[in-house]
What does this fold into?
Amino acid sequence: MSRVQTEESHRIKWATLSHRDGQYEVVTPAGVQPGGLLSVQEDWSFFLEGRLSFEFSTPDYFSDADIGHLTIGIGSITDPESGKPSLQGKGIVIGNLTEYGCNGSCTQTDHPNTVAIESYWATGNCVHGQDTQYPLELQNDVGYRVEIGVSPVSETIRYTLWTKTRQRKWKKLYTAHIHDPFFANSGNRAGWWIGEVFSVHAWSVKFRTIDWSFV
It folds into this structure.
């Protein structure tokens, strides 16, 4: 059952996602979260505009040898029909997509430790690397902020990236958006996730002020 379309905003103050000895762990103010995935699933069956924003920093995630990336999306964490775990939505990746390859409009990034838009559905995914990648590499021990927006009406995905200056102010680094030809593949259920795949080294990423809203 769908809701009346009024905006709802929510916040998680902080969370830590880490990888040690081949195992993922997520810790929030509520304690250790199972499954190594930070996620929220709302009971909205559709939305007109979705937004997710957060600050993040890491002492050790970004590395020239890193082969993994953070996967961040707005959408569903379970398959609507089977109820089984399945990340389906639209969002971004942060990390290394240089080995993704190219298939039409789906392209890898030119360098690791970057940000790019990605869409996810039950049987595939598409990284819009060449069209949306941040042109520089992210660094360890630097504070960043990112905001992701998804608009089913216009079938667009966008993000904006900031960094924190020495004066503790946010400076915009980059913004990108794209009309996603695969938008309809994953519907538009209200929810979000932050996870990681493919890395082999030990690391931790601290997230702060995780805000989300749906209209």
